[in-house]
Amino acid sequence: MKMKLSLFLAKRYLMAKWSLMSTLSILMISFGIITLIVVLSIMNGFHNTFRKKILETNTYHVILQSSYDNHYSLNNIKSILFKNKEIISVIPYFDGEGIIKSRWATKGIIIKAFPKDILQRDSGFRNEIKIPEGEFDLSEDDHILLGEELARKTGVYIGDFVSILTFRGEDISFAQPTFKIFQVVGFFKTGYWEYDRSMAYINLDTAYKLFGIEETDLTIGIKIKNIFKADKIVHWIRNNGLGDFYILTWMDINRILFEALRNEKVALGFVVMLIIVSGAFNIIGSLVMTIMVKRKEIGILRAIGATPSLITRIFVIDGFYIGIIGSAVGVFMGFFLTLNIEKIFSLFEFIVNGLKRIIYVLFLLPQNKPFPPTFEILSDSIYYLEGVPVEIHFWDVFIISMLAIFISVIAAYYPAKKASLTKPVDTIRYE
Questions:
Q1: Vertex 204, ends 200 and 210: CA angle to 5°?
Q2: Dihedral over Cα of 298, 302, 305, 308: its sign
Q3: Which DSSP symbol is given to 174?
Q4: Could you tell me which of 253, 251, 220, 254 has the C-alpha nearest to residue 237?
Q5: Model pTM greater than 0.90?
Q6: Closest CA relative to residue 156, chosen from 78, 88, 89, 100
Q7: Under DSSP, is residue 399 helix (H, G, I), strand (E, B) or coil?
Q8: Does the pLDDT at position 384 exceed 60?
Q9: 3-class SS at 81?
Q10: Which residues have a Cβ under 8 Å from the Cβ of 11 and sit 6 or more positions away?
Protein backbone atom coordinates (compact mmCIF):
# COMPACT_ATOMS: atom_id res chain seq x y z
CA MET A 1 0.00 0.00 0.00
CA LYS A 2 2.80 2.43 0.92
CA MET A 3 4.64 1.64 -2.33
CA LYS A 4 1.50 2.30 -4.40
CA LEU A 5 1.04 5.63 -2.63
CA SER A 6 4.70 6.53 -3.23
CA LEU A 7 4.43 5.70 -6.93
CA PHE A 8 1.18 7.67 -7.29
CA LEU A 9 2.51 10.81 -5.59
CA ALA A 10 5.86 10.65 -7.42
CA LYS A 11 4.01 10.48 -10.73
CA ARG A 12 1.78 13.43 -9.79
CA TYR A 13 4.79 15.54 -8.81
CA LEU A 14 6.66 14.63 -11.98
CA MET A 15 3.71 15.55 -14.22
CA ALA A 16 2.96 18.84 -12.46
CA LYS A 17 2.66 22.01 -14.59
CA TRP A 18 5.73 23.59 -13.07
CA SER A 19 8.07 20.66 -14.01
CA LEU A 20 10.12 22.40 -16.69
CA MET A 21 13.27 21.34 -14.84
CA SER A 22 12.09 17.71 -14.95
CA THR A 23 11.73 18.00 -18.72
CA LEU A 24 15.23 19.46 -19.00
CA SER A 25 16.58 16.65 -16.80
CA ILE A 26 15.00 14.02 -19.04
CA LEU A 27 16.39 15.74 -22.14
CA MET A 28 19.89 15.96 -20.67
CA ILE A 29 19.85 12.26 -19.70
CA SER A 30 18.53 11.35 -23.17
CA PHE A 31 21.11 13.51 -24.94
CA GLY A 32 23.94 11.92 -22.97
CA ILE A 33 22.74 8.39 -23.79
CA ILE A 34 22.22 9.27 -27.48
CA THR A 35 25.74 10.68 -27.69
CA LEU A 36 27.30 7.70 -25.93
CA ILE A 37 25.49 5.12 -28.08
CA VAL A 38 26.39 6.88 -31.34
CA VAL A 39 30.01 7.55 -30.35
CA LEU A 40 30.69 4.07 -28.95
CA SER A 41 28.95 2.34 -31.88
CA ILE A 42 31.04 4.24 -34.43
CA MET A 43 34.21 3.60 -32.43
CA ASN A 44 33.35 -0.11 -32.17
CA GLY A 45 32.85 -0.19 -35.92
CA PHE A 46 36.10 1.63 -36.62
CA HIS A 47 38.15 -0.46 -34.19
CA ASN A 48 36.80 -3.81 -35.38
CA THR A 49 37.14 -2.85 -39.05
CA PHE A 50 40.65 -1.56 -38.43
CA ARG A 51 41.60 -4.68 -36.48
CA LYS A 52 40.19 -6.93 -39.18
CA LYS A 53 42.12 -5.14 -41.92
CA ILE A 54 45.40 -5.38 -39.99
CA LEU A 55 44.95 -9.04 -39.04
CA GLU A 56 43.80 -10.17 -42.47
CA THR A 57 46.28 -8.25 -44.63
CA ASN A 58 49.39 -7.49 -42.57
CA THR A 59 49.72 -10.02 -39.81
CA TYR A 60 48.10 -13.27 -38.67
CA HIS A 61 46.06 -14.55 -35.76
CA VAL A 62 48.93 -16.78 -34.60
CA ILE A 63 52.49 -16.90 -35.94
CA LEU A 64 55.23 -19.51 -35.57
CA GLN A 65 58.89 -18.59 -35.90
CA SER A 66 61.52 -21.28 -36.15
CA SER A 67 64.15 -21.69 -33.46
CA TYR A 68 67.68 -22.76 -34.40
CA ASP A 69 67.37 -26.31 -33.10
CA ASN A 70 64.24 -27.60 -34.86
CA HIS A 71 64.24 -29.62 -38.07
CA TYR A 72 60.61 -29.51 -39.17
CA SER A 73 59.74 -29.11 -42.84
CA LEU A 74 56.81 -26.98 -43.98
CA ASN A 75 54.83 -30.09 -44.89
CA ASN A 76 55.36 -31.55 -41.40
CA ILE A 77 54.19 -28.31 -39.79
CA LYS A 78 51.10 -28.08 -41.99
CA SER A 79 50.13 -31.69 -41.37
CA ILE A 80 50.26 -31.11 -37.61
CA LEU A 81 48.42 -27.76 -37.65
CA PHE A 82 45.56 -28.87 -39.89
CA LYS A 83 44.62 -31.53 -37.34
CA ASN A 84 42.97 -28.70 -35.41
CA LYS A 85 39.55 -27.86 -36.91
CA GLU A 86 39.76 -24.27 -35.66
CA ILE A 87 42.68 -23.54 -38.01
CA ILE A 88 41.50 -22.39 -41.45
CA SER A 89 44.77 -21.47 -43.20
CA VAL A 90 48.52 -21.89 -42.78
CA ILE A 91 50.65 -19.47 -44.81
CA PRO A 92 54.48 -19.38 -44.89
CA TYR A 93 55.84 -15.89 -45.51
CA PHE A 94 58.96 -13.78 -45.07
CA ASP A 95 59.43 -10.16 -43.97
CA GLY A 96 62.58 -8.46 -45.20
CA GLU A 97 63.89 -4.98 -45.80
CA GLY A 98 65.39 -3.38 -48.85
CA ILE A 99 65.83 -0.23 -50.87
CA ILE A 100 63.61 0.62 -53.83
CA LYS A 101 64.96 2.80 -56.65
CA SER A 102 62.73 4.37 -59.28
CA ARG A 103 63.43 7.14 -61.78
CA TRP A 104 62.32 9.74 -59.24
CA ALA A 105 63.12 8.47 -55.76
CA THR A 106 65.06 6.07 -53.56
CA LYS A 107 63.44 4.77 -50.40
CA GLY A 108 63.82 2.10 -47.74
CA ILE A 109 60.92 -0.34 -47.72
CA ILE A 110 59.56 -3.51 -46.09
CA ILE A 111 59.39 -6.43 -48.51
CA LYS A 112 56.78 -9.08 -47.74
CA ALA A 113 57.07 -12.37 -49.60
CA PHE A 114 54.01 -14.61 -50.05
CA PRO A 115 53.32 -17.87 -51.86
CA LYS A 116 52.24 -17.29 -55.46
CA ASP A 117 48.74 -18.61 -54.72
CA ILE A 118 48.16 -16.54 -51.57
CA LEU A 119 44.75 -15.35 -52.79
CA GLN A 120 43.51 -18.92 -53.17
CA ARG A 121 44.93 -20.08 -49.85
CA ASP A 122 43.91 -17.12 -47.68
CA SER A 123 40.28 -16.02 -48.12
CA GLY A 124 40.58 -13.33 -45.42
CA PHE A 125 43.49 -11.70 -47.23
CA ARG A 126 41.64 -11.96 -50.55
CA ASN A 127 38.52 -10.26 -49.14
CA GLU A 128 40.29 -7.39 -47.38
CA ILE A 129 43.12 -6.41 -49.74
CA LYS A 130 42.17 -3.71 -52.26
CA ILE A 131 43.82 -3.41 -55.67
CA PRO A 132 42.95 0.09 -56.99
CA GLU A 133 45.19 -0.28 -60.07
CA GLY A 134 46.72 -3.23 -61.89
CA GLU A 135 46.23 -6.78 -60.63
CA PHE A 136 47.42 -9.02 -57.81
CA ASP A 137 49.79 -11.26 -59.77
CA LEU A 138 52.83 -12.86 -58.14
CA SER A 139 53.12 -15.68 -60.68
CA GLU A 140 56.42 -14.41 -62.12
CA ASP A 141 59.70 -13.97 -60.28
CA ASP A 142 60.06 -10.34 -61.38
CA HIS A 143 56.54 -9.21 -60.42
CA ILE A 144 56.09 -6.78 -57.54
CA LEU A 145 53.12 -4.98 -55.98
CA LEU A 146 53.59 -1.66 -54.21
CA GLY A 147 51.48 0.03 -51.56
CA GLU A 148 49.49 2.82 -53.17
CA GLU A 149 51.12 5.53 -51.01
CA LEU A 150 54.58 4.07 -51.72
CA ALA A 151 53.89 4.17 -55.47
CA ARG A 152 52.79 7.79 -55.18
CA LYS A 153 55.93 8.77 -53.24
CA THR A 154 58.26 7.06 -55.71
CA GLY A 155 56.39 8.28 -58.82
CA VAL A 156 55.78 4.76 -60.13
CA TYR A 157 53.02 3.67 -62.54
CA ILE A 158 51.70 0.26 -63.54
CA GLY A 159 54.16 -1.42 -65.92
CA ASP A 160 57.17 0.59 -64.72
CA PHE A 161 60.38 -1.14 -63.70
CA VAL A 162 62.00 -0.57 -60.31
CA SER A 163 65.29 -1.74 -58.80
CA ILE A 164 65.37 -3.50 -55.42
CA LEU A 165 68.57 -3.69 -53.38
CA THR A 166 68.83 -6.10 -50.44
CA PHE A 167 71.65 -7.46 -48.28
CA ARG A 168 72.38 -11.11 -47.52
CA GLY A 169 73.85 -12.17 -44.21
CA GLU A 170 73.13 -11.42 -40.57
CA ASP A 171 76.29 -9.37 -39.95
CA ILE A 172 75.94 -6.07 -41.83
CA SER A 173 79.72 -5.67 -42.09
CA PHE A 174 79.93 -8.88 -44.18
CA ALA A 175 76.53 -8.61 -45.88
CA GLN A 176 76.48 -9.14 -49.64
CA PRO A 177 74.31 -6.75 -51.67
CA THR A 178 71.78 -8.35 -54.02
CA PHE A 179 70.25 -6.37 -56.85
CA LYS A 180 67.14 -7.24 -58.89
CA ILE A 181 64.85 -5.42 -61.33
CA PHE A 182 61.09 -5.89 -60.87
CA GLN A 183 58.08 -4.89 -62.94
CA VAL A 184 55.24 -3.19 -61.06
CA VAL A 185 52.04 -5.13 -61.80
CA GLY A 186 49.70 -3.58 -59.25
CA PHE A 187 49.10 -1.25 -56.31
CA PHE A 188 47.45 -2.39 -53.07
CA LYS A 189 45.63 -0.76 -50.17
CA THR A 190 45.56 -2.57 -46.82
CA GLY A 191 43.56 0.02 -44.89
CA TYR A 192 46.56 0.97 -42.77
CA TRP A 193 48.41 4.01 -44.12
CA GLU A 194 51.72 3.16 -42.43
CA TYR A 195 51.93 -0.12 -44.37
CA ASP A 196 50.73 1.34 -47.65
CA ARG A 197 53.52 3.91 -47.63
CA SER A 198 56.37 1.48 -46.97
CA MET A 199 55.51 -2.04 -48.10
CA ALA A 200 55.90 -4.13 -51.26
CA TYR A 201 54.82 -7.71 -52.09
CA ILE A 202 56.87 -10.28 -53.98
CA ASN A 203 56.55 -14.06 -54.28
CA LEU A 204 58.25 -16.48 -51.93
CA ASP A 205 60.44 -18.18 -54.55
CA THR A 206 61.99 -14.82 -55.43
CA ALA A 207 62.64 -14.09 -51.74
CA TYR A 208 64.75 -17.27 -51.42
CA LYS A 209 67.18 -15.87 -54.00
CA LEU A 210 66.91 -12.20 -53.10
CA PHE A 211 67.57 -12.62 -49.37
CA GLY A 212 69.47 -15.92 -49.41
CA ILE A 213 67.04 -17.56 -47.01
CA GLU A 214 65.89 -21.13 -46.42
CA GLU A 215 62.66 -22.76 -45.26
CA THR A 216 63.66 -22.43 -41.61
CA ASP A 217 63.85 -18.65 -42.00
CA LEU A 218 60.17 -18.36 -42.90
CA THR A 219 57.43 -17.33 -40.52
CA ILE A 220 54.30 -19.48 -40.42
CA GLY A 221 51.10 -17.45 -40.33
CA ILE A 222 47.98 -19.15 -38.97
CA LYS A 223 44.40 -17.95 -39.25
CA ILE A 224 41.66 -19.37 -37.07
CA LYS A 225 37.87 -19.23 -36.98
CA ASN A 226 37.63 -17.24 -33.75
CA ILE A 227 40.48 -14.81 -33.10
CA PHE A 228 39.61 -14.66 -29.39
CA LYS A 229 40.55 -18.33 -29.03
CA ALA A 230 44.15 -17.62 -30.07
CA ASP A 231 45.53 -18.49 -26.60
CA LYS A 232 43.81 -21.89 -26.69
CA ILE A 233 45.29 -22.56 -30.15
CA VAL A 234 48.77 -21.67 -28.83
CA HIS A 235 48.30 -24.10 -25.95
CA TRP A 236 47.20 -26.82 -28.39
CA ILE A 237 50.19 -26.18 -30.68
CA ARG A 238 52.65 -26.45 -27.79
CA ASN A 239 51.09 -29.76 -26.75
CA ASN A 240 51.19 -31.23 -30.25
CA GLY A 241 54.85 -31.40 -31.09
CA LEU A 242 55.61 -27.77 -32.04
CA GLY A 243 56.76 -26.50 -28.66
CA ASP A 244 60.23 -25.65 -30.02
CA PHE A 245 58.83 -22.75 -32.08
CA TYR A 246 58.49 -19.16 -30.93
CA ILE A 247 54.71 -18.63 -30.91
CA LEU A 248 52.99 -15.24 -30.82
CA THR A 249 49.32 -14.28 -31.04
CA TRP A 250 47.83 -11.23 -32.72
CA MET A 251 47.41 -9.69 -29.25
CA ASP A 252 51.15 -10.04 -28.56
CA ILE A 253 52.13 -8.55 -31.91
CA ASN A 254 49.76 -5.56 -31.84
CA ARG A 255 49.32 -5.13 -28.09
CA ILE A 256 50.29 -1.45 -27.89
CA LEU A 257 48.12 -0.45 -30.85
CA PHE A 258 44.99 -2.27 -29.69
CA GLU A 259 45.42 -1.17 -26.08
CA ALA A 260 45.66 2.43 -27.31
CA LEU A 261 42.42 2.00 -29.27
CA ARG A 262 40.66 0.48 -26.25
CA ASN A 263 41.90 3.25 -23.93
CA GLU A 264 40.71 5.84 -26.43
CA LYS A 265 37.22 4.33 -26.34
CA VAL A 266 37.15 4.30 -22.52
CA ALA A 267 38.42 7.90 -22.26
CA LEU A 268 35.95 9.24 -24.80
CA GLY A 269 33.10 7.34 -23.16
CA PHE A 270 34.03 8.86 -19.79
CA VAL A 271 34.06 12.39 -21.23
CA VAL A 272 30.67 11.95 -22.90
CA MET A 273 29.31 10.42 -19.67
CA LEU A 274 29.73 13.87 -18.11
CA ILE A 275 26.66 14.94 -20.11
CA ILE A 276 24.59 12.46 -18.09
CA VAL A 277 26.18 13.80 -14.89
CA SER A 278 25.08 17.30 -15.99
CA GLY A 279 21.58 15.91 -16.30
CA ALA A 280 21.87 14.65 -12.72
CA PHE A 281 22.43 18.21 -11.48
CA ASN A 282 19.26 19.21 -13.29
CA ILE A 283 17.46 16.43 -11.42
CA ILE A 284 18.69 17.87 -8.11
CA GLY A 285 17.52 21.34 -9.14
CA SER A 286 14.17 19.97 -10.33
CA LEU A 287 13.43 18.12 -7.12
CA VAL A 288 14.60 21.00 -4.89
CA MET A 289 12.15 23.26 -6.72
CA THR A 290 9.46 20.61 -6.25
CA ILE A 291 10.10 20.64 -2.51
CA MET A 292 9.90 24.45 -2.38
CA VAL A 293 6.68 24.62 -4.39
CA LYS A 294 5.05 21.63 -2.73
CA ARG A 295 6.18 22.49 0.80
CA LYS A 296 2.59 22.88 2.01
CA GLU A 297 1.50 19.54 0.56
CA ILE A 298 4.52 17.81 2.07
CA GLY A 299 3.65 19.34 5.45
CA ILE A 300 0.07 18.10 5.19
CA LEU A 301 1.29 14.60 4.28
CA ARG A 302 3.52 14.64 7.35
CA ALA A 303 0.64 15.90 9.51
CA ILE A 304 -1.68 13.07 8.47
CA GLY A 305 0.92 10.43 9.24
CA ALA A 306 3.34 10.18 6.31
CA THR A 307 6.70 8.98 7.62
CA PRO A 308 10.04 10.54 6.59
CA SER A 309 10.88 7.32 4.75
CA LEU A 310 7.66 7.62 2.68
CA ILE A 311 8.52 11.21 1.69
CA THR A 312 12.08 10.17 0.81
CA ARG A 313 10.77 7.29 -1.27
CA ILE A 314 8.43 9.58 -3.23
CA PHE A 315 11.25 11.83 -4.44
CA VAL A 316 13.71 8.99 -5.04
CA ILE A 317 11.07 7.37 -7.24
CA ASP A 318 10.74 10.74 -8.99
CA GLY A 319 14.44 10.55 -9.88
CA PHE A 320 13.98 6.92 -10.95
CA TYR A 321 11.13 7.95 -13.27
CA ILE A 322 13.33 10.63 -14.82
CA GLY A 323 16.14 8.11 -15.36
CA ILE A 324 13.79 5.52 -16.91
CA ILE A 325 12.11 7.99 -19.29
CA GLY A 326 15.43 9.63 -20.24
CA SER A 327 17.06 6.24 -20.85
CA ALA A 328 14.14 4.97 -22.98
CA VAL A 329 14.12 8.09 -25.15
CA GLY A 330 17.92 8.08 -25.37
CA VAL A 331 18.17 4.41 -26.38
CA PHE A 332 15.46 4.78 -29.05
CA MET A 333 16.98 7.92 -30.56
CA GLY A 334 20.49 6.53 -30.20
CA PHE A 335 19.56 3.44 -32.21
CA PHE A 336 17.78 5.55 -34.82
CA LEU A 337 20.69 7.95 -35.31
CA THR A 338 23.31 5.19 -35.28
CA LEU A 339 21.54 3.12 -37.92
CA ASN A 340 21.12 6.23 -40.11
CA ILE A 341 24.48 7.85 -39.38
CA GLU A 342 25.71 7.57 -42.96
CA LYS A 343 22.68 9.49 -44.27
CA ILE A 344 23.16 12.10 -41.55
CA PHE A 345 26.85 12.52 -42.47
CA SER A 346 25.93 12.82 -46.16
CA LEU A 347 23.31 15.48 -45.38
CA PHE A 348 25.80 17.43 -43.25
CA GLU A 349 28.43 17.24 -46.01
CA PHE A 350 25.84 18.40 -48.56
CA ILE A 351 24.88 21.41 -46.42
CA VAL A 352 28.50 22.42 -45.70
CA ASN A 353 29.58 22.06 -49.34
CA GLY A 354 26.50 23.98 -50.46
CA LEU A 355 27.38 26.87 -48.14
CA LYS A 356 31.00 26.79 -49.39
CA ARG A 357 29.77 27.06 -53.00
CA ILE A 358 27.57 30.05 -52.14
CA ILE A 359 30.44 31.81 -50.34
CA TYR A 360 32.77 31.03 -53.25
CA VAL A 361 30.39 32.42 -55.89
CA LEU A 362 29.63 35.57 -53.86
CA PHE A 363 33.05 36.45 -52.52
CA LEU A 364 35.93 34.35 -53.94
CA LEU A 365 35.02 33.91 -57.61
CA PRO A 366 35.16 37.70 -58.37
CA GLN A 367 38.72 37.66 -56.98
CA ASN A 368 39.71 34.62 -59.16
CA LYS A 369 40.43 32.56 -56.07
CA PRO A 370 40.54 28.73 -56.45
CA PHE A 371 37.53 26.71 -55.35
CA PRO A 372 38.07 25.30 -51.82
CA PRO A 373 38.41 21.52 -51.47
CA THR A 374 35.26 19.45 -50.98
CA PHE A 375 34.41 18.84 -47.34
CA GLU A 376 34.28 15.16 -46.29
CA ILE A 377 33.73 13.88 -42.76
CA LEU A 378 35.37 10.54 -43.60
CA SER A 379 37.59 10.74 -46.65
CA ASP A 380 37.87 7.47 -48.63
CA SER A 381 41.49 8.30 -49.48
CA ILE A 382 42.42 8.34 -45.79
CA TYR A 383 40.21 5.70 -44.17
CA TYR A 384 39.69 3.31 -47.15
CA LEU A 385 36.13 2.71 -45.98
CA GLU A 386 33.02 1.90 -47.96
CA GLY A 387 30.60 3.75 -45.70
CA VAL A 388 30.66 4.44 -41.98
CA PRO A 389 31.38 1.27 -39.95
CA VAL A 390 28.90 0.92 -37.09
CA GLU A 391 28.55 -1.83 -34.48
CA ILE A 392 25.99 -1.57 -31.69
CA HIS A 393 26.99 -3.72 -28.72
CA PHE A 394 24.11 -4.77 -26.44
CA TRP A 395 26.26 -4.64 -23.30
CA ASP A 396 27.39 -1.08 -24.07
CA VAL A 397 23.77 0.06 -24.34
CA PHE A 398 22.73 -1.88 -21.23
CA ILE A 399 25.56 -0.48 -19.07
CA ILE A 400 24.95 3.08 -20.30
CA SER A 401 21.23 2.83 -19.50
CA MET A 402 21.79 1.33 -16.05
CA LEU A 403 24.38 4.01 -15.20
CA ALA A 404 21.98 6.75 -16.29
CA ILE A 405 19.20 5.35 -14.07
CA PHE A 406 21.61 4.86 -11.16
CA ILE A 407 22.93 8.42 -11.43
CA SER A 408 19.35 9.74 -11.58
CA VAL A 409 18.41 7.89 -8.38
CA ILE A 410 21.57 9.02 -6.57
CA ALA A 411 20.95 12.63 -7.66
CA ALA A 412 17.40 12.42 -6.27
CA TYR A 413 18.50 11.20 -2.85
CA TYR A 414 19.69 14.56 -1.40
CA PRO A 415 16.51 16.56 -2.19
CA ALA A 416 14.44 13.51 -1.12
CA LYS A 417 16.20 13.46 2.25
CA LYS A 418 15.73 17.21 2.56
CA ALA A 419 11.99 16.83 1.91
CA SER A 420 11.69 14.10 4.56
CA LEU A 421 13.02 16.51 7.21
CA THR A 422 10.22 19.01 6.63
CA LYS A 423 8.41 19.80 9.90
CA PRO A 424 4.63 19.77 9.45
CA VAL A 425 3.92 22.33 12.23
CA ASP A 426 6.29 24.96 10.79
CA THR A 427 4.99 24.38 7.27
CA ILE A 428 1.34 24.78 8.14
CA ARG A 429 2.04 27.81 10.40
CA TYR A 430 3.82 29.75 7.63
CA GLU A 431 1.51 28.61 4.84
A1: 75
A2: positive
A3: G
A4: 220
A5: no
A6: 100
A7: helix
A8: no
A9: helix
A10: 321
